[in-house]
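USER:
Try writing one entry.

ASSISTANT:
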Amino acid sequence: MQAAKQAGLLHGKGGRIGGRVSPVLVRQAKRQTGIEADTDLIEFALAAVALEDNFAQAFEKSRGKVDPELKLGF
């Protein structure tokens, strides 16, 4: 959440969202994160998506390509 705050993603909490979700999913997510409030849980989940670094996509895109100048140490 600190990274989301530093990125300016948490200011101006005027937005509102709504939806239906499985109560089992919410309970498990709260258990997993230690977050108790629904609003905080939603904010945490959205921040995690917003700050995703897309490592998997970048890794797959570079598959089979190694910079010939890269020093591997052997």
Notes: The first helix runs from residue 2 to 6. The two ends are 40 Å apart (CA to CA).
